[in-house]
Design brief:
- The complex is a heterodimer of chains A (345) and B (257).
- With 345 residues, chain A is an all-alpha fold.
- Chain A contains 15 helices and no strands.
- In chain A, α9 packs antiparallel against α12 and α13 crosses α14.
- The radius of gyration of chain B is 18 Å and the shape is globular.
- The chains are: A mainly alpha (345), B alpha/beta (257).
- The interface between A and B is medium-sized, with 25 and 30 residues.
Chain lengths: 345, 257
C-alpha cells in the first residue's frame, strides 16, 4: 500500500535514460552472478544448475560453498556501494567512504580483538561463529555512538567534525590492531592478516542468512530517503527550508551505513575502495540524483564485488587471492585519478 | 493573512544580534529590510524562516505560532532564497529547479509538475539553461536558477488561496541591470498574485521603487518603518549609514555620492 506511491515518487525524479541504465546494471549484475556461480576451481555450466544429474560432490560445492560465497560477495558489494553513495551525499564530499568516518576501522578493531584474543576469552562458547560478526558490529556501533556524542552540539557544522572524528577513530583503531598484531601467535597473525585483506572464503548459510536480513532491511530503510539527499546538496539550511529534517536524515544515513558496513566487514574483512569507486562510476554513467545513484550503486557494487571475487578465485588456481587486494589494486589508481580531477575543478 | 513577528530578541554569547524587533508581512505586500552590514538583517530572516530560535519573542504565520508548524508545513508556506552554498555534484539546472518542487501528496500537483517547471523557467529567463550543468553557470545565472527554485516551491494551481510567503536575501546580487529589473518586476507580480514578500536589499533606490514598506535596521534594532517616503529621510539615513545622503522627492531618489 505504501510501496506504490513510494516507487512513483522515486521514479518521478529519475529520467527515462536512468531507468534504462538501472536495467542494464541489473542485467550486468545477473550475468556476474551466473558467471560467479559457474566458474571456479569446479566449473558448472548454467544448464547443469537446472539439471538433476549431478554428483553429490558437485551439489555440495555449489550449494554449500559457492552460492553462499557469491551471495555474500553481492551483499557486501551492495552494502559498500550504497553506503559510499549515501555518505558522499551526506558529507557533500566525493571522497567520503565508509572507511572515512571510521566505521570500517571500528568494526575491524572489534573483529581483530576476537581473532587474536577470542580463543582465550570465550573457550568453547556455543555461539562461537557469531562472536566475530557481533564484535565487529559492536565496534561499528561504538564508533557511531562516538560520532553521535562528538557531533551533537556542532549543529550545521557537524559534518566537518564528524570527518575529523573519523580520522581520529581510524588512527585509534590502527593502534589497536597494531598492538593485537604484535601480541598474536603465528596462526592468529595469519588469520588476522588474511582477514584484514578481505576474503569471502568463510561464507556459509549459517553465517550469511542473518547478515542478508540485516543488510536488506537497512537498505530498504535508506533508499526512500534519496530525494532528501538530493535536497541536502543545496546546503543544510536550504534542505531544512525545503522541509527536510536534516538531523534525522543525518542519523539515518550514518546508522544504516554503520549497520551494513559493520556486518560486511565482520564477514569479509576490510575491502577498500568499493564505496569510493562505485558511486563515482554510477554518476559518470548516468547522473548525480540519488534516486538513481543509490539503487545504481547497490547494483554495480554487487556486480563488481562478485566479479572481483571471481577473479580472486580463478587468477592463481588452485590457491586464491584476498579479494581486498584486487579491489585495492583497481581502486587506488582510481582514487588518485579522482583527486587530480577534483583539483582541476 | 500575515506573518507577525513581535519583540524578537536574539543573542549569542551575550552579544545582542536582534533587539526587540517587531514587524508584519501581509500577503500581497512587498516589504524590504534595509540597513548597513551587521545590522541583523539576515539573522532576522533566519529567525523568521525558523532556522534560528530567537532568545525571546513570538512569530506567527497566519495566527499560528511558528513553533507549532512542522518543518514540512513550513516549506509549503514560505520559500527562502539566501546566499547559496557551492553545489558539489554536477546537477543540471533543471534538477536544481525541480528541487523546489515539494511532494504534497496531492495528485493534481504532480500532474502540473512539468508545466510549472517550464513556466517558471521562462519567467526567470533560464529556459535556455535547463539542460546545462549548474556548476558551469555564471554567478548571476546561478542566482536566477535559485530564484526559479524559490518560485517553484510556492507554485500552486491558479485557483488556490493558500497564504504564501517568500523571503529573499539580496536576490539581485550578481545580476546585471536588465535581470535585476526583471527579477524585481517578477517579485512585484508575484506579490500581486497574493504572495507576501520580504526582501533584504542594499540598493536603497531599488528598495524605494519596488517596496510597499521599508524596515530600516541598525545594530539589531528596527530604527524606522513605514512607506518608502517616510523611511527614506535624509537625517535618519545619514545617521544609520554614517554617510551624508541627499534625498530627492518626486520621484523618490537617494543620492550618496
Amino acid at each position: 500500500m505504501r510501496v506504490k506511491p513510494l516507487v512513483k515518487n522515486l521514479l518521478r525524479f529519475t529520467n527515462s535514460s536512468q531507468i534504462y541504465l538501472l536495467g542494464v546494471l541489473l542485467i550486468a549484475f545477473l550475468l556476474a552472478f551466473l558467471a560467479s556461480i559457474s566458474l571456479g576451481s569446479f566449473n558448472f555450466s548454467v544448464f547443469e544448475l537446472f539439471n538433476s544429474s549431478k554428483t553429490s560432490l558437485h551439489t555440495t560445492v555449489l550449494y554449500e560453498i559457492r552460492i553462499p560465497r557469491v551471495i555474500l560477495a553481492a551483499f557486501v558489494g551492495a552494502s559498500l556501494g550504497l553506503s559510499g553513495a549515501s555518505l558522499q551525499g551526506l558529507f557533500r564530499n566525493p571522497l567520503a567512504d565508509p572507511g572515512l568516518i571510521g566505521v570500517s576501522a571500528g568494526a575491524a578493531l572489534g573483529a581483530s580483538i576476537i581473532i587474536v584474543l577470542g580463543s582465550s576469552l570465550f573457550p568453547g562458547f556455543i555461539f562461537g561463529a557469531f562472536i566475530l560478526p557481533m564484535a565487529a558490529i559492536c565496534g561499528a556501533a561504538l564508533v557511531i555512538s562516538l560520532l553521535y556524542v562528538f557531533t551533537r552540539g556542532f549543529g550545521y557544522q557537524g559534518i566537518t567534525y564528524m570527518l575529523l572524528v573519523g580520522i581520529a577513530v581510524n588512527a585509534f583503531a590502527s593502534v589497536g590492531i597494531g598492538i593485537l598484531t604484535y601480541i598474536s601467535t603465528d596462526s592468529e597473525l595469519r588469520g588476522l592478516t588474511f582477514w584484514t585483506m578481505g576474503s569471502f572464503g568463510g561464507a556459509s548459510w549459517y553465517l550469511i542468512l542473518p547478515a542478508i536480513v540485516v543488510i536488506s532491511l537497512s537498505m530498504f530503510w535508506m533508499i526512500p530517503s534519496s530525494r532528501k539527499l538530493d535536497l541536502l546538496q543545496l546546503g543544510e539550511p536550504e534542505a531544512y527550508r525545503l522541509g527536510v529534517d536534516v538531523k534525522k536524515l543525518k542519523y539515518k544515513v550514518i546508522i544504516s551505513s554503520a549497520i551494513t558496513v559493520g556486518v560486511s566487514v565482520s564477514l569479509s574483512g576490510m575491502i577498500g575502495f568499493v564505496g569510493l569507486v562505485v558511486p563515482h562510476l554510477v554518476r559518470l554513467l548516468g547522473g548525480v540524483n540519488h534516486s538513481y545513484l543509490l539503487p545504481g550503486s547497490a547494483l554495480l557494487g554487487a556486480g563488481l564485488m562478485m566479479s572481483a571475487d571471481l577473479l580472486s578465485r580463478i587468477l592463481v588456481q588452485p590457491a586464491e587471492l584476498p579479494v581486498g587486494l584486487i579491489t585495492s589494486a583497481i581502486g587506488a589508481p582510481f582514487f588518485l585519478w579522482l583527486i587530480f580531477r577534483i583539483r582541476k575543478i | 493573512m500575515s506573518i507577525q513577528a513581535s519583540s524578537i530578541y536574539w543573542e549569542i554569547n551575550g552579544k545582542k544580534i536582534l533587539n526587540n524587533v517587531s514587524l508584519e508581512i501581509k500577503n500581497g505586500e512587498v516589504v524590504s529590510i534595509i540597513g548597513p552590514n551587521g545590522a541583523g538583517k539576515s539573522s532576522f530572516l533566519n529567525v523568521l524562516s525558523g532556522d534560528i530560535k530567537p532568545t525571546s519573542g513570538n512569530i506567527t504565520f497566519d495566527d499560528v505560532n511558528l513553533k507549532e508548524i512542522t518543518i514540512q508545513e513550513r516549506s509549503f508556506m514560505r520559500s527562502v532564497m539566501s546566499q547559496s552554498q557551492q553545489i558539489v555534484y554536477d546537477f543540471s539546472v533543471k534538477e536544481i529547479i525541480e528541487m523546489g518542487w515539494l511532494d504534497r501528496g496531492i495528485a493534481s500537483y504532480s500532474e502540473d509538475f512539468k508545466d510549472a517547471v517550464v513556466n517558471v523557467a521562462q519567467e526567470c529567463s533560464v529556459s535556455d539553461l535547463l539542460d546545462q550543468k549548474f556548476n558551469t553557470l555564471s554567478g548571476g545565472e546561478q542566482r536566477r536558477v535559485h530564484f526559479a527554485r524559490t518560485l517553484i516551491q510556492l507554485w500552486r494551481p491558479s485557483d488556490s488561496k493558500d497564504p504564501r510567503y517568500m523571503f529573499l536575501d539580496e536576490p539581485t546580487a550578481n545580476l546585471d541591470i536588465l535581470h535585476e529589473q526583471n527579477l524585481m518586476k517578477l517579485v512585484k507580480e508575484k506579490a500581486r498574485e497574493g504572495i507576501g514578500v520580504l526582501l533584504i536589499l542594499h540598493d536603497l533606490n531599488l528598495a524605494a521603487k519596488y517596496s510597499d514598506k521599508l524596515f530600516l535596521f541598525k545594530e539589531g534594532s528596527l530604527i524606522k518603518s513605514g512607506s518608502p517616503e517616510e523611511v527614506l529621510e535624509r537625517d535618519i539615513l545619514s545617521y544609520v549609514y554614517g554617510l551624508t545622503m541627499r534625498v530627492e522627492r518626486d520621484p523618490l531618489r537617494v543620492n550618496y555620492y
